[in-house]
Amino acid sequence: MTITEQISIAKSPKKKNEDGIVVTDNFVAVIDGSTSKTNRRYSLFSSNGRYAMKLIARYIGKMEKDCSCHQFCVGVTNYLAKHYKKSEINHLIEHPEERLTASVIIFSRLRREIWMVGDCQCLVGGTYYDNPKPYEHELAEQRAQMIKQSQKPQVEFLREDTARQHIIPRMLQTMKNQNITYAVVDGFRIPENKVKIITLDFSPWEIVLASDGYPFLCPTLKESEDRLKNQKENDPLNIGEFKATKAFMEGNNSFDDRSYIRFSV
Questions:
Q1: Using one digit for the tens of pLDDT, what is the confidence trace for 163-202?
Q2: At what angle do helices 162-174 and 136-149 cross, to 10 degrees?
Q3: Per CATH, the architecture of 2-132+178-219+250-264 is what?
Q4: Quick one: which H or E segment has residue 57?
Q5: E strand or H helix at 72, and its extent?
Q6: Whole-model pTM?
Q7: Contact between 261 and 3 (Cβ < 8 Å)
Q8: Which residue among 2, 63, 187, 211 is least packed, with the fewest CB closer than 10 Å?
Q9: What are 49-93's pLDDT values in tens digits?
Q10: Burial of 204 (0-12, 13-18, 19+ CB in 10 A)
Q11: How far is the C-alpha of 148 from the C-alpha of 142, rounded, in Å?
């Protein structure tokens, strides 16, 4: 494997990145820790999303080179589960929104496979793949319509996104389906039929793995960053061609943490 370029940047200069990139001799991975939507915290030193990302990165760093997707799903689930107290399990079964949660995309060099667990994206030989969460588009559309119909000047939503605040309860409700109708890594059993696997032949391939912080994934980092810059300049609320459940808030460099890695095999 030859790494061509990579970057991982937090959306806010005042906060630590909840995204991460892992590169070993046998695996390349992008991890997107989920931003907390409740007040529950598992670490005094980092957000739940960053803590989940760090734990998963540590697990990937120790995986056997012939690890299968199934073995990863079982192993990383057990690894995260160890960081919950036994007394918490019943509560977390009922409240998935309080779990340590992340999406992960991994390339296995030995198996020549890409595993997509949760909301992530990639380019494989120029072909685009994603694995979006159900309801995400619907919620983004609902937020967009609220902003467009509001009498409040749109610039004010960049300071306080009351439209996002309005959809948060619905977002929490959809999270009840976490690891039921869609897959994530959260310390509970991953439904492997919701994990997308891309198998490569032994031809040379150029691959891009990325988190969903890039609204338009392109074959080079510069192109992807340029499209992101254009999005911020032309539609910072993300209510036009590209719709999202959050905006480029005032003082932030983007609407979400973002990670991108391009490599060839």
A1: 999 999 999 999 999 999 999 999 999 999 999 999 999 9
A2: 160
A3: 4-Layer Sandwich (3.60)
A4: helix 48-61
A5: helix 69-81
A6: 0.95
A7: yes
A8: 2
A9: 999 999 999 999 999 999 999 999 999 999 999 999 999 999 999
A10: exposed
A11: 10
